[in-house]
Design a protein that fits this description.
With about 1000 residues, the protein is an alpha/beta fold. About 55% of the residues lie in helices and about 5% in strands. Strands 6-7-8-3-9-10 form a 6-stranded mixed beta sheet, sandwiched between helices.
């Protein structure tokens, strides 16, 4: 027994050493480049094939073949990938999702290329570089780990590597050549991949599909080490390898034996599943795993293209024999790929597990039709397919629920796909002896193809419905800007789960159709590698395109059926590695190329002179929309309406009046102030903050304030140039609008800490209705943390947030919007692929008031956006987009509006116009909280100010008192300033 344990331990150390090499390579590549290299296993496979080619096919000495493979070819592969694929992505912005897609493209390309060159069969004649004795492999893993640790800890290059990992842009500014560091990381990572491949190849099946997947199963080692800690990776790899070997000693009786054997043979898969779904995962960028939605996603497909597609899909009805049998696979695969359009194209989520759902659909259909599904009777084939779809759909919920919360959604879904393949499809007790017939009356290929076309048409209608209406807009908003969608009231998590469930159901339907077309359940048809190929095909041919999914299905089946296997993978791989240059796929690239080739008409010299003369003859021509011209200096009219003629040359917020927002702000910004009217104020409705403070000091509690409604005690009648004087473009409440009765938003003793840093320390504040409350302070004072707590993005460690006495501390962002707390963002959070009207409609459909049909038109009129309602938001200037974001937030009828740096990116005229709108909103009863660096803007705008420093509120009170105190020595509150 002792001898058996020792032998099993040695065998486990051998397997664990190879896994440790893989983990080291993945960690070094990720630390140098930030890329989770899905192509690592494919590089290992390619190097194993090359060693065999050199040593066996070409009779090179083994030492020479190994040296060329490991020291020349493997690093060269890494350098070529870094230079040709990943460096251009980094230059273009380094979107993590697109980088991941590119690495999957490299995987698919190398797998397809190997299948083309060496065939798809397994090779058993790979030379042994190191004997089966594990000590050599273990020594290689330990030496490599120590070498990497020493280089990163004690050399200049190691310091540069750590700097690039911490902040690549800052490292570049410090003079570090980040490209050189990334190239070295890729070269070393490819070297370790090649070493893993040549060490494993003699002891496992070497084929284009098996070895890459086997290597990628040990990604769990790197994830468990948080993609940073090399010693942890080595220890975990050795531990799992030894445990996997020791499990082979156990032989329980009954049903537990095949299950334990499956676990013992696939313990790295179990570890991958746990690492992906339970352990803290791989860090991601700000956009996470969400693929950006390209501008061409909203370009309608020409009707002619659909006519051509229909004709092409009807052509196989005239085929016969093997051609018709092959064509039967196309509609089924099209349905599977449509499931990716739902999850990836509409939801923007990277899901690499659709092959598992499709395989389960085929397996469950076969089991139900054969009467072998536990607890259910034998069913006719159509009923079996329907029940299989209903059974698989909840599995999308079970896998999607933990996956969408992970730091690496792609890895989590890949882990689920591998686990289903290993523990279900590869087990004889589940799949042995299964056949799958076709529905009665559809046994022939031609009749069955017609049935498939009907089912494909139904799937197309379902997915097309998700592109339109309220759900379509919500999905597009979520993909464009997830945080912005949540702030608009979109239940992002529920919508993602719905996309996973619908995607799983469609994949199961397509898998059942594919199984019936093949007349059997074939586990190889649903291999995880095939799932990666399907994902890459959908992405490169247009993830949000129905026609792209159909084209991908026809392309995958047609290329591999008409040529040697691997052609489809090679073609898709080449397209996928170009995803950074053409994120919208070949259609977008072709459209851009034809646009550049179009001849543009040019004026002759005489025409140019005539245009110049005509332009000179119209000096009062309207300014270009969104330019911010016509900023609103008065011209003696006294109305404050902007131009001297009293006419607007464009939208009110861009070219409207730059009404002064208080003497203090006007003096510092140099804004022109309209003449005072009979009230003695600059704007005719309320005084600046200094006048309000003077009135309060004098005991006049009925002095005019922006927070009071017309008709209330102490409220001033609106002047001729103010929003309340009947100008609908500036924020006055129109007839039919829901009357706001804004409740009080309060924060009670908020504490917030993260990463050992205390951001908020016992912070309390009130945001009353009809008033503008401001929060100011230096960078790092905790303003943003407080704002995010109020908006629901962060949850405080201690304390409460209440709205009208109701505790909303635990409500997420979208739920707070629906109870009446809306927000805007410092960095614009509009949805660029939606039009202005669609942007605003999302807020109207998802906000607090969701049954007001006039909300959209009212918001567009209030912010003077009617003229640009049908223009995509991506084409508009910053000033207009600020109004779009405000209109979206207000279209849902919020009680409280939270504004994070609302003046960011605006010029002086646009800031003045924004201030005018905000004061009008407060006059209508909305409670506003502004977090702003511009103290001058706050001085002329706010009723109350909170000053924060080091996470505490150090001063609060009326705006003038607090801001005057800040003007004391060193900018600190004076002794008599409010506390």
């Amino acid at each position: 027994m002792a001898s058996l344990s020792y032998d099993l331990t040695l065998a486990g150390l051998s397997v664990g050493s190879a896994a440790a090499l893989t983990g080291i390579g993945l960690i070094v590549t990720h630390r140098a480049t930030g890329v989770l290299n899905f192509a690592h296993g494919a590089i290992a496979m390619l190097c194993a094939y090359l060693l065999r080619q050199f040593a066996v096919a070409w009779d090179w000495p083994l030492w020479l073949a190994a040296a060329v493979t490991l020291l020349v070819v493997a690093p060269a592969i890494g350098l070529v990938l870094e230079r040709a694929v990943f460096r251009p992505l980094a230059v273009l912005g380094g979107d993590p999702a697109q980088t991941l897609v590119a690495s999957i493209g490299v995987f698919v390309l190398l797998v397809g290329g190997a299948a083309l060159i060496w065939g798809q069969g397994a090779r058993a004649d790979v030379p042994t570089l190191v004997s089966a004795d594990p000590w050599g492999q273990l020594a290689a893993a330990v030496v490599l780990a120590l070498a990497v640790w020493a280089v990163t800890r004690f050399t200049r290059f190691g310091g540069e590597l750590r700097a690039v990992v911490d902040d690549r842009r800052l490292a570049v500014l410090a003079g570090i050549d980040a490209d050189r560091v990334a190239a070295a990381g890729w070269a070393f990572g490819s070297f370790t991949a090649g070493l893993t491949g040549v060490l494993l190849a003699p002891y496992v099946r070497l084929d284009p599909y098996g070895m890459p997947l086997l290597v990628m199963e040990v990604v769990a080692v790197a994830v468990a080490a948080r993609m940073r800690n090399l010693p942890v990776a080595v220890v975990v790899a050795l531990g799992i390898g030894v445990a996997q070997s020791q499990l082979t000693r156990l032989h329980p009786s009954g049903w537990r034996e095949p299950l334990l054997q499956a676990v013992g043979a696939n313990l790295f898969v179990v570890a991958l599943l746990i690492a992906a779904l339970v352990l803290p995962g791989v860090a991601r960028g700000a956009k996470g795993d969400a693929l950006p939605r390209t501008a061409t996603a909203r370009v309608p497909t020409p009707p002619g293209a659909w006519i051509v597609a229909v004709v092409l899909f009807l052509l196989p009805l005239g085929f016969a024999g093997s051609d018709l049998t092959t064509s039967v696979q196309v509609p089924a695969l099209g349905v599977i790929l449509l499931s990716l359009v739902v999850v990836t194209g509409r939801g923007g989520q990277i899901s690499l597990g659709q092959a598992a759902y499709a395989g389960l659909g085929a397996l469950f259909t076969a089991l139900l039709a054969a009467g072998r599904f536990p607890g259910l009777p034998e069913l006719p084939t159509p009923a079996a397919l329907a029940v299989a779809v209903l059974l698989v759909a909840p599995l999308g919920l079970l896998t999607g629920w933990p996956a969408i919360s992970r730091l690496a959604l792609a890895l989590a879904t890949f882990a689920v796909g591998v686990a289903v393949s290993r523990f279900v499809f590869a087990q004889p007790y589940a799949t042995s002896g299964l056949t799958l017939g076709r529905p009665a009356g559809f046994a022939g290929d031609r009749a069955y193809y017609l049935l498939e076309l009907v089912l494909l048409g139904g799937a197309l209608l379902l997915v097309a419905a998700l592109r339109r209406g309220r759900t379509g807009r919500a999905l597009a908003a979520m993909r464009d800007h997830e945080a912005g969608a949540a702030a608009a009231g979109v239940p992002v998590r529920a919508l993602k789960l719905a996309a996973f469930v619908i995607g799983a159901a469609l994949a199961a339907l397509g898998g059942g159709m594919l199984g019936m077309g093949l007349r059997a359940f074939d586990p190889a048809a649903f291999d995880p590698v095939r799932g990666l190929l399907w994902f890459a095909a959908v992405v490169v041919l247009g993830a949000d395109s129905l026609l792209g999914a159909l084209l991908a299905g026809a392309l995958l089946v047609g290329l591999d059926a008409g040529t040697r296997g691997g052609v489809a993978a090679a073609v898709i791989g080449i397209l996928a590695i170009l995803i950074g240059r053409f994120p919208g796929g070949p259609y977008e690239a072709l459209r851009a190329a034809t646009h550049r080739l179009q001849r543009r008409p040019r004026l002759t010299p005489a025409g140019a002179r005539l245009r110049t003369a005509l332009a000179g003859a119209t000096p009062n021509a309207p300014a270009t929309h969104g330019s911010g011209s016509g900023s609103g200096s008065g011209s003696g009219s006294g109305s404050g309406s902007g131009s001297g003629s009293g006419q607007r040359a464009g939208p009110a917020a861009d070219n409207g009046p730059a009404t002064a927002v208080g003497n203090r702000a006007a003096g510092r910004h140099g804004w022109a102030q309209p003449p005072a009217d009979s009230t003695g104020t600059a704007d005719g409705s309320s005084g600046g903050s200094r006048q309000r403070a003077d009135a309060e000091e004098g005991g006049d509690r009925d002095a005019p304030r922006p927070g009071r409604r017309a008709g209330e005690p102490g409220a001033a009648e609106p002047g001729a140039g103010e929003p309340g004087a009947g100008e609908p473009g500036a924020g006055a409440q129109e007839p039919g609008a829901p009357q706001l009765r804004a409740p009080l938003l309060k924060a009670h003793g908020l504490w917030l800490s993260y990463d050992g840093f205390t951001a908020l320390r016992n912070v309390s504040l009130e945001v009353p209705p009809g008033r503008i409350t401001a929060v100011v302070g230096p960078n790092g004072a905790g303003k943003s943390s407080l704002f995010h707590c109020l908006a629901g993005t962060l949850r405080p460690d201690k304390g409460r947030i209440t709205l009208a006495g109701r505790d909303i501390t635990r409500l997420p962002a979208h739920a707070r919007t629906r109870v009446g707390v809306a927000r805007t963002f410092q960095e614009l959070a509009v949805f660029p692929t939606l039009t202005v009207a669609e942007n605003v409609r999302v807020g109207a459909e998802q906000g607090r008031v969701r049954d007001d049909p006039a909300a959209l038109e009212r918001a567009l009129r209030l912010f003077d956006l009617t003229s640009v309602r049908d223009r995509p938001a991506a084409d508009l200037p910053t000033g207009t987009l600020r109004r779009v974001e405000l209109a979206r937030a207000l279209s849902g009828g919020p009680h409280v509006l939270l504004l994070d740096e609302p003046a960011a990116g605006l010029d002086t005229a646009e800031v003045a116009a924004l201030a005018r709108i905000l004061r009008a909103l407060a006059a209508d009863g909305t409670a506003l909280l502004v977090v702003e660096h511009d103290v001058d803007l706050v001085a002329g705008l706010a009723d109350a100010v909170y000053v924060m420093t080091a996470g505490r509120v150090v001063a609060s009170g009326p705006a003038d008192r607090v801001l005057d105190a800040l003007d004391g020595p060193d900018g600190a509150p004076t002794e008599d300033g409010p506390r």
